[in-house]
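Deliverable D4.2, example record:
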Amino acid sequence: MSDAPLFTALATSSRQLYSLLRCIAFNPQAVVSITPDGLRFTTEEVHAVQASTLLDKLLFSSYLLSDQDATIPPFRINIIALLETLQIFGISDSASSHKAPSGGITSSYAAAFHTPALGLGGTCKITYSRFGAPLCITIEENGVKTTCDMNTYNLPNMYDADENEIPLDRNALVMKIIMPAFSLHDAISELASTSSETLVVSASSIHAPYFALEGHGGPFGDSTVDFAPASTMDGLSTARRVQPAATETFSIAAPSGSGGRVKERYKFDLIKKAGRAMALASKFMVEQPEVTANATTAYGGPGGFSFIDYRFVPLVGEDNDDDHGDDEDETYQQDEEDEAIAE
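Output generated by the structure prediction step:
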């Protein structure tokens, strides 16, 4: 058994893998972690934006580790080369889009997860024989087999995946908003049309605007998308609370002295890197109809979904209340993070 590879997995279609990985491929270099729960891919840029997705083992018909108790050191690969391999038999990537029945824009990204498209991709076998060896990808369709040995690059000995994550303390969130991804995607796309340099996220549970996205610094002036509020009963009490109608969850815990408002600023070009994920997702959860619905993923969520996690570091260096200030002195804040705009 000494010749057995460290890891082998077989997927009945490469399409789901391709569509998920493409959502985070804004940087050619990706860190791969092989775990008992699945394959985790992470990309980042100057530690200001970081994206990750887990190819859950439920996406594979076979998922084998030679030693379940052994830890396989993470490694780096070229994710663009991997995507080219996965679509070698011609996964369609039409840029066409249309209005979704529930609102927003849908495109060919989402179509990749629906029949008959799911039946088009050939089987995909992934093998990692030993540490430092190439990652072997074998695609087979209609009797035609193509094998690609992708170079892997060792990470520093002191590399720790958890320590290299942009920190987010989920037990100390000041803002948590869950909403349909198409609503966020439409708002970001509208603001992007003004060539804004900075995105301002503003939220309050006590006074208007309750949830607004503002684009600043563009050549055509500033612009704002204000999500209309809806009043709902607060539990069994007679009190009413206000939250934007587009949101499913709207939790704001503004720090003292902030006037009850959470307001952060981000580089717009970094936010746009999540556009493909927003176009594909429902709530940054990507539907996987081939996965058993009553199964449970490694995230603890329903087995019919995969998650894409984007984290952005806000801009600091001037008062956030000064929305029209100069950006030249801005730096990235890495010690205090907000929850992602949508999950």
